TrEMBL record:
Residues 383-407 are annotated as: Disordered. It comes from Streptomyces cyaneofuscatus. It holds the Pfam family Pyr_redox_2. Its cofactor is FAD. Belongs to the NADH dehydrogenase family. Residues 13-310 form the FAD/NAD(P)-binding domain. This is FAD-dependent oxidoreductase. The keyword Flavoprotein applies.
Length: 407
C-alpha cells in the first residue's frame, strides 16, 4: 500500500491543475528547485500550448500569435504534461479527476497546486451567453475573430466593460479595423480609476481611433443585433463582453474554504486555510495584498503568487526555511492598439499615482511586459540559484497558520 506522503516510487506527487501564467510558472519553478528523483510533478491542462491571455485581444482582431508548445517549454525539466480537462477535485481523498477524449481518470496527489484561473463573467445579464463574445480564453477569441472577419464596412461592434480588458479590446479593434463602427460601454466615467494624465490620454486615443464612448451606461440585455442599456439601445453586429472575471466553479464543489466569489482562501505562502496540502494561486486564490486588499485577478498578481507557492512547496519538501515575499503592485500596463499605450504608475495597493507614461514609449514598454511574462513561463527561476535540493526523508507539513497574511 502506498503511504500517505509518497507514490509508488517513493516520490512526492505534486499535481498542478491549470497551465495559465500562474500554473505553468509554478510547475516549472518547482521542477527547478527540487531533485526529480524525490518529486513527481504532473501539470494538467486542456490545451497543448501556452495561451498568452494578455494578447487574446490581438488574436481576436486577426493577428497571429507565436505558438508556445508546453512540450518545448518543459523539455528536460521533469514536468509531466497531462492533456486533459479537470472535472473535479476531491480535497479530502486527495484526488483530481481529469477527462480527455478517450477516458476519465483519477490522479492522486500528495500536494495540489490549484491554478484553474478564471473565465468571463456574464453577471447573468440576459442574452450574454447566447449573443456576446468573450476574450477570456482562446476558444472565445477565435470565435470572435471569425465573427469580426465576416463583418463589412460600417457595421457596429460594442465592447461592454471599461476596465483594462475592455480598453485594450476596443482600441485594438478600432486600430485594426478602422472600417468598423466601434463603441465602448462603461459603467462609470472613462478610465475613472486612472490619474488625470492617464484619463486625458485615454480620451485622446479613443477620439483619434473614432471610438464612441458611452459613459455611465449599464448594459441590461444582449441581442443578436443590439445591446439594451439603461440609456437606450446601441446597435451591435458583434458584442464583446469584458466586465470582469469569474473563477472556475470547481472549487465551489469541494470542501476547500472559499470566499463568496469562489476563490480559495490562502495564507501568505499560498496554502489553503482549510487543507494544508493544497496551494492556490493566480485568479483562483483569494490573496491579501497591502492594506488587506485582495489582489485583483491579473497576470501581475498571478505570477508572484506562483513564485511564492513553488518556493513554499520546495522549502517544505527539502526541509529548508520558507520565506514569504510581500505582494504589491507597481503599475498598470494598458496597450491601446499596437502603436500607443498607457503605463499608469500605482501605489503598492493599486491606487493610481499622478505619474503615467503614454504614447509610443508606453506601447513598447507594454510589449516588453507581455514578452517578459511569456519568457518567465519558460524561465521561471529568474534570479534564483539553480541548484536543485533533494527531498527530505520525511517532508513535514509546516505548522499551519490560522490567519491569512500576505503582506
Amino acid at each position: 500500500m502506498q503511504d500517505h506522503q509518497h507514490g509508488s516510487h517513493g516520490q512526492h506527487r505534486v499535481v498542478v491543475i491549470g497551465a495559465g501564467y500562474a500554473g505553468a510558472i509554478a510547475a516549472g519553478r518547482l521542477a527547478r528547485r527540487v531533485r526529480s528523483e524525490g518529486v513527481a510533478i504532473t501539470l494538467v491542462n486542456a490545451e497543448p500550448d501556452f495561451v498568452e491571455r494578455v494578447r487574446l485581444h490581438q488574436l481576436a482582431v486577426g493577428q497571429e500569435l507565436r505558438p508556445r508548445p508546453f512540450a518545448e517549454m518543459f523539455a528536460g525539466t521533469g514536468v509531466q504534461l497531462r492533456l486533459a480537462r479537470v472535472t473535479a477535485v476531491d480535497a479530502d481523498r486527495k484526488t483530481v479527476t481529469a477527462t480527455d477524449d478517450h477516458a476519465t481518470e483519477e490522479l492522486p496527489y500528495d500536494t495540489l497546486v490549484y491554478a484553474l484561473g478564471s473565465t468571463w463573467n456574464t453577471h447573468d445579464v440576459p442574452g450574454t451567453a447566447e449573443h456576446a463574445h468573450d476574450i477570456a480564453g482562446r476558444p472565445g477569441a477565435l470565435r470572435l475573430r471569425e465573427r469580426l472577419a465576416a463583418l463589412g464596412a460600417g457595421q457596429p461592434v460594442v465592447v461592454v466593460g471599461g476596465g483594462l480588458t475592455g480598453l485594450e479590446a476596443a482600441t485594438e479593434l478600432a486600430e485594426a479595423r478602422p472600417d468598423l463602427d466601434v463603441a465602448l460601454a462603461a459603467r462609470g466615467a472613462l478610465g475613472d480609476w486612472l490619474s488625470p494624465k492617464g484619463r486625458r490620454h485615454l480620451r485622446k486615443v479613443c477620439d483619434r481611433l473614432g471610438i464612441t464612448v458611452h459613459e455611465h451606461t449599464r448594459v441590461t440585455a444582449v441581442d443578436a443585433d443590439h445591446v439594451t442599456t439603461t440609456a437606450g439601445g446601441i446597435p451591435a453586429s458583434a458584442t464583446i463582453w469584458t466586465t470582469g472575471f469569474a473563477v472556475n466553479p470547481i472549487a465551489q464543489a469541494t470542501t476547500l474554504k472559499i470566499d463568496t466569489t469562489g476563490r480559495i482562501e490562502v495564507d501568505g505562502t499560498m496554502r489553503s486555510l482549510s487543507h494544508p496540502d493544497v496551494y492556490a494561486i493566480g485568479d483562483a486564490a483569494l490573496v491579501m495584498g497591502p492594506n488587506d486588499k485582495p489582489l485583483r485577478m491579473s497576470c501581475a498578481s498571478g505570477v508572484p503568487t506562483a513564485w511564492q507557492a513553488a518556493d513554499s512547496i520546495a522549502s517544505r519538501l527539502t526541509g529548508t526555511k520558507p520565506t514569504t515575499v510581500p505582494l504589491r503592485y507597481f503599475n498598470q500596463c494598458i496597450s491601446l492598439g499596437r502603436k500607443d499605450g498607457l503605463i499608469q504608475y500605482v501605489t503598492a495597493d493599486d491606487r493610481s499615482r499622478p505619474a503615467a507614461l503614454t504614447g509610443r514609449s508606453a506601447a513598447l514598454y507594454k510589449e516588453l511586459v507581455c514578452k517578459g511574462a511569456a519568457w518567465g513561463v519558460a524561465n521561471p527561476t529568474l534570479g534564483l540559484p539553480t541548484r536543485r535540493r533533494g527531498v527530505a526523508q520525511n517532508p513535514t507539513p509546516a505548522p499551519h497558520p490560522t490567519t491569512a497574511n500576505a503582506g
